[in-house]
């Protein structure tokens, strides 16, 4: 594949993310990876549900007293919106509008960063209350589930910055189109996981 | 090198050769690396097995201490499953599957290499525990109640080593899946894929879904032991049963990850050496998929005695017994493949013939244990040991040995001695039954598994002694195989495309070993058993080309996978000794930074591969032809 | 050769057609986003309103499942063709994941 092939908006293929053999492989491989990630998170959710509110005697942390919904609501809105902005980025990718795509991706990144900031704040707040990682089985399961999601966000942000910076000068081609596309899949998947986290961990935690 | 296949590579010095192997992304070479790595760990696990049997040779033996015995059984199981059986099968998958589907390489050559190095470094990490601190001693299942209580760093080695090796396995699984999905030659529909490719496909899907739970479980164990987690600490509200569930949600599919490719290998062998199309091909495919699917529904049959309640036990018992149906379909199809065939008893065929009764015995005892009430009697006795060795040795190890003889010429271009091959088979086969058949009865007589020693005059003495002698016979079989390999390599008599003369699938249509681009022209597939169809129609070349000769795109070699894995390997030591040595944390961070830098290099540097020109292909093909004529 | 990319220039008519389709799809995505936000709001309100858990929990789980379906089918384009295989693997993953969760909430009880 020649990186120097120049495209125009009119010659850009309809599905640049699967236009080459390598791209097709990456596309399928990444979807399969997400299938595996589904099980990874399912196991974490299962463990959390089994150990939720399971604390040693004399320790009174529980989901309905600990969690604060307003914060979670703001985080949810940030992440949901970032999902939409990455859809916009892919819209522009398919239209061969590189600058608009980079811009929307940058917005996605900032929203993700905001989410991560709130998460760090939330965790430090809990630790301040004495709800540390080693506090109980409940705390370990909570931090591992939500923290693994947070780690995915952080990895996504690093990936995104590398993509944006690496390709800033050379624009779109069929080599990096798939990379952008798989990133957007990854980002949506993070959002999918978060939907279950805010429902199962926070909302169901508050309901009791 | 005088061989035709390596024509493009000129004679190289030692350093250049080493560099070539460290950076290779060629699936055939990675296959060989897997064989070397897996073979090394197989011998290691075998030595551990011999020490176990030596200890149990006579009652009240004190050849090894009780603690050391625990380390031996743990490392024997872990090594054999994760570091020997799986990598050896991966070796054959890597070497053969792309050829069977008419591909030039796997979908992700870079990740393929990364997967190998992660397996190898993970295995190395695990085995360094023998020299640093102590080896893990909580059994290969590492049940949390034992592993949390285990002192020393043994379990840490287990958790981190398997984490690294497991990640490599997951990558290899995704790679095989995408290869089989996307890289099939024109005309190679799903229902024309050879059975070994099909079983690789299903086994890889199982890897994709089974390894993430293991990853999670090992993280829990790591956090509990090293970072203050409370998942399994009952006094912190934890629950050790969670580990058992997670481990077996992974562990039961793992059995099928091992045994399905073995079924694939035997399907190829039965068909080749009966000179007949595999009987009931579609039923075989369906049975493979069904076994893979049911494999996820039965994990709790390892936990009947935990006390899940009668409802759960009943559900899992029924699901377990259901698996016997597709497995039975397979057994009958193999028998009917031989029926009326013109059978040649070669070494691989001998293994295949020995496999059927051995594996059926393992399957039948499996169904017995699937009956939950009976399992209360059999649980944790030597009956279980006998059962799973009949499945794993009688199924998987026989398949690996058979594949070694079957595919050796394709991978190395020279034939293993048939005479010595048969000697290996008889030693191994007789030794295997001697070792494990009597263990059924030892179990029924009440001998518990994982005991260090036993008192005399319980009726166990004779059977244990016979069992130990059998293990020695197996070892002799393996030693004969090693001698065979050395002699064959020294003689180096080159063979042609189809050394068994009855090859049916595409890999036998190209030189042994194939040139690095495999197929000068992508083949066109016209049916099941492509090569056989072309042979019967008198096509001398063995396959029809789907395209004119043109430039071939190939991936570049890379040293990055090695560095990436090295970083994780180093970080592993840092994580383990973080709390007791001041260098722990810096080493942990340093290792991770190394890995991250390698990853960043990979993502920033464009790697577009290179083209083999048309002229070069024509020249290489001519040279192969010339040398073949010369050697015959 | 699979690796050579044929560059096909679109005619103005084809190009306008593509653009119009893309714009229409984007409007659909926006609608889906509005729907997701709406469902999220319902979930949070239902919890804050203090209805019986027996009512709230099934509702919010259902809303989460629908929302995830929208993410997968619209934002991740799973409804488009060429996604048969990804769907198969995702569904298998969801099924096995569901079994895991089911087992952990039912038979880990002591």
From TrEMBL, chain A:
Pfam families: COX3 (PF00510). Keywords: Membrane, Transmembrane, Transmembrane helix. Its main location: membrane. Residues 1-206 form the Heme-copper oxidase subunit III family profile domain. InterPro entries: Cyt_c/ubiquinol_Oxase_su3 (IPR024791), Cyt_c_oxidase-like_su3 (IPR000298), Cyt_c_oxidase_su3-like_sf (IPR035973), Cyt_c_oxidase_su3_a-hlx (IPR013833). The chain crosses the membrane at residues 30-51, 71-91, 103-121, 141-165, 185-205. The keyword Transferase does not apply. It is found in: Cell membrane; Membrane. SUPFAM superfamilies: Cytochrome c oxidase subunit III-like (SSF81452). It is a multi-pass membrane protein. Belongs to the cytochrome c oxidase subunit 3 family. This is Cytochrome c oxidase subunit 3.
From TrEMBL, chain B:
It catalyses: 4 Fe(II)-[cytochrome c] + O2 + 8 H(+)(in) = 4 Fe(III)-[cytochrome c] + 2 H2O + 4 H(+)(out). Pathway: Energy metabolism; oxidative phosphorylation. Its EC number is 7.1.1.9. The chain crosses the membrane at residues 32-52, 72-97, 109-132, 157-183, 195-221, 241-266, 278-300, 312-336, 348-367, 387-408, 420-442, 462-486, 559-577, 583-600. It is a multi-pass membrane protein. The keyword Membrane applies. It is an enzyme of class 7 (translocase). It is found in: Cell membrane; Membrane. Pfam families: COX1. Residues 13-526 form the Cytochrome oxidase subunit I profile domain. It comes from the Bacteria. Its main location: membrane. Keywords: Cell membrane, Copper, Electron transport, Heme, Iron, Membrane, Metal-binding, Respiratory chain, Translocase, Transmembrane, Transmembrane helix, Transport. InterPro entries: Cyt_c_oxase-like_su1_dom, Cyt_c_oxase-like_su1_sf, Cyt_C_Oxase_1, Cyt_c_Oxase_su1_BS, Cyt_c_oxidase_su1_bac. Cytochrome c oxidase is the component of the respiratory chain that catalyzes the reduction of oxygen to water. Subunits 1-3 form the functional core of the enzyme complex. CO I is the catalytic subunit of the enzyme. Electrons originating in cytochrome c are transferred via the copper A center of subunit 2 and heme A of subunit 1 to the bimetallic center formed by heme A3 and copper B. Belongs to the heme-copper respiratory oxidase family. This is Cytochrome c oxidase subunit 1.
UniProtKB/TrEMBL annotation, chain C:
Keywords: Cell membrane, Membrane, Transmembrane, Transmembrane helix. It comes from the Bacteria. It is a multi-pass membrane protein. The chain crosses the membrane at residues 30-49, 55-76, 88-109. InterPro entries: Cyt_c_oxidase_su4_bacillaceae, Cyt_c_oxidase_su4_prok. It is found in: Cell membrane. NCBIfam families: CoxD_Bacillus. This is Cytochrome c oxidase subunit 4.
């Amino acid at each position: 594949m020649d990186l120097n092939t120049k495209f125009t908006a009119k010659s850009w293929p309809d599905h640049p993310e699967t236009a080459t053999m390598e791209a097709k492989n990456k596309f399928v491989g990444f979807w399969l990876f997400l299938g595996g990630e589904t099980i990874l998170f399912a196991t974490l959710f299962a463990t959390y549900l089994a150990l939720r509110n399971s604390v040693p005697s004399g320790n009174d942390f529980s989901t309905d007293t600990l969690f604060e919904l307003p914060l979670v609501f703001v985080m949810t809105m940030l992440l949901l919106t970032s999902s939409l902005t990455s859809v916009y980025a892919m819209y522009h990718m398919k239209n061969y509008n590189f600058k608009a795509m980079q811009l929307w991706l940058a917005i996605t990144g900032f929203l993700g960063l905001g989410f991560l900031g709130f998460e760090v704040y939330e965790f430090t707040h809990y630790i301040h209350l004495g709800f540390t990682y080693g506090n109980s089985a409940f705390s370990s399961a909570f931090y591992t589930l939500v923290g693994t999601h947070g780690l995915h966000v952080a990895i996504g942000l690093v990936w995104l910055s590398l993509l944006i910076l690496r390709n800033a000068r050379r624009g779109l081609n069929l080599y990096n189109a798939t990379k952008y596309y798989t990133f957007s899949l990854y980002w949506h998947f993070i959002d999918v996981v978060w939907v279950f986290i805010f429902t199962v961990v926070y909302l169901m935690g508050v309901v009791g | 090198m005088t061989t035709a296949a390596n024509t493009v590579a000129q004679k190289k010095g030692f350093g250049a050769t080493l560099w070539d192997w460290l950076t290779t992304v060629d699936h055939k070479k990675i296959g060989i690396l897997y064989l070397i790595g897996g073979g090394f760990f197989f011998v290691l696990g075998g030595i551990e097995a011999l020490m176990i049997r030596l200890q149990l040779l006579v009652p009240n033996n004190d050849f090894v201490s009780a603690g050391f015995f625990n380390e031996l059984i743990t490392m024997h199981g872990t090594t054999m499953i994760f570091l020997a059986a799986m990598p050896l099968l991966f070796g054959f998958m890597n070497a053969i599957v792309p050829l069977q589907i008419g591909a030039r390489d796997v979908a992700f050559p870079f990740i393929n290499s990364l997967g190998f190095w992660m397996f190898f470094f993970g295995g190395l990490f695990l085995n360094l525990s023998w020299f640093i601190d102590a080896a893990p001693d909580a059994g290969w299942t590492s049940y949390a109640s034992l592993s949390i209580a285990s002192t020393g760093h043994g379990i840490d080695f287990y958790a981190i080593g398997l984490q690294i090796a497991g990640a490599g396995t997951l990558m290899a699984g995704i790679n095989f899946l995408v290869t089989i999905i996307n890289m099939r030659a024109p005309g190679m529909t799903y229902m024309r894929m050879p059975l070994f490719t099909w079983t690789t496909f299903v086994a890889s899907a199982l890897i994709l879904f089974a390894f993430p739970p293991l990853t999670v479980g090992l993280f829990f164990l790591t956090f509990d032991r090293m970072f203050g987690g409370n998942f399994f600490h009952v006094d912190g509200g934890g629950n050790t049963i969670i580990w058992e569930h997670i481990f077996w949600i992974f562990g039961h599919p793992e059995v099928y990850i091992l045994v399905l490719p073995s079924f694939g290998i035997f399907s190829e062998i039965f068909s080749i050496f009966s000179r007949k199309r595999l009987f009931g091909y579609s039923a075989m495919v369906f049975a493979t998929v069904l076994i893979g699917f049911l494999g996820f529904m039965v994990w709790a049959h390892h936990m009947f005695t935990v006390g899940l309640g009668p409802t759960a036990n009943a559900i899992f018992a029924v699901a377990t017994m259901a698996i016997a149906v597709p497995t039975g379909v397979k057994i009958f199809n193999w028998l009917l493949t031989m029926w009326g065939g013109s059978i040649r008893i070669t070494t691989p065929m001998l293994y295949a013939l020995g496999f059927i009764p051995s594996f059926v015995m393992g399957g039948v005892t499996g169904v017995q244990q699937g009956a939950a009430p009976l399992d209360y009697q059999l649980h944790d006795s030597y009956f279980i040991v006998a059962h799973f060795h009949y499945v794993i040795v009688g199924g998987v190890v026989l398949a690996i040995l058979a594949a070694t003889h079957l595919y050796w010429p394709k991978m190395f271009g020279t034939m293993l001695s048939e005479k010595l091959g048969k000697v290996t088979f008889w030693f191994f086969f007789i030794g295997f039954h001697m070792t494990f058949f009597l263990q059924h009865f030892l179990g029924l007589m009440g001998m518990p598994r994982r005991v260090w020693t036993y008192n005399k005059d319980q009726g166990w003495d004779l059977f244990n002694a016979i069992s130990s002698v059998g293990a020695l016979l197996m070892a002799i079989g393996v030693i004969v195989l090693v001698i065979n390999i050395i002699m064959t390599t020294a003689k180096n008599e080159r063979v042609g495309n189809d050394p068994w003369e009855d090859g049916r699938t595409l890999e036998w249509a190209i030189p042994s070993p194939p040139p690095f681009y495999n197929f000068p022209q992508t083949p066109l597939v016209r049916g099941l058993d492509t090569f056989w169809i072309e042979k019967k129609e008198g096509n001398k070349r063995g396959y029809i080309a789907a395209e004119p000769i043109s430039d071939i795109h190939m991936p570049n070699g890379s040293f990055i996978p090695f560095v990436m894995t090295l970083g994780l390997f180093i970080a592993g030591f840092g994580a383990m000794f973080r709390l007791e040595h001041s260098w722990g944390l810096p080493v942990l961070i340093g290792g991770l930074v190394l890995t991250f830098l390698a990853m960043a290099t990979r993502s920033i540097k464009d790697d577009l591969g290179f083209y083999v020109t048309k002229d070069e292909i024509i020249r290489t093909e001519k040279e192969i032809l010339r040398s073949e004529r010369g050697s015959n | 050769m699979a690796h050579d990319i044929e560059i096909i220039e679109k005619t103005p008519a084809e190009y306008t057609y593509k653009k119009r389709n893309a714009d229409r799809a984007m409007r659909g995505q926006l609608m889906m986003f509005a729907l997701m936000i709406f469902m999220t709001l319902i979930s949070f309100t239902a919890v804050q309103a203090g209805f019986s858990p027996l009512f709230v929990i099934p509702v919010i789980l259902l809303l989460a499942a629908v929302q995830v379906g929208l993410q997968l089918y619209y934002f991740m384009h799973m409804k488009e063709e060429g996604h048969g295989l990804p769907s198969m693997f995702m569904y298998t993953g969801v099924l096995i994941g569901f079994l895991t969760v089911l087992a952990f909430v039912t038979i880990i009880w002591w």
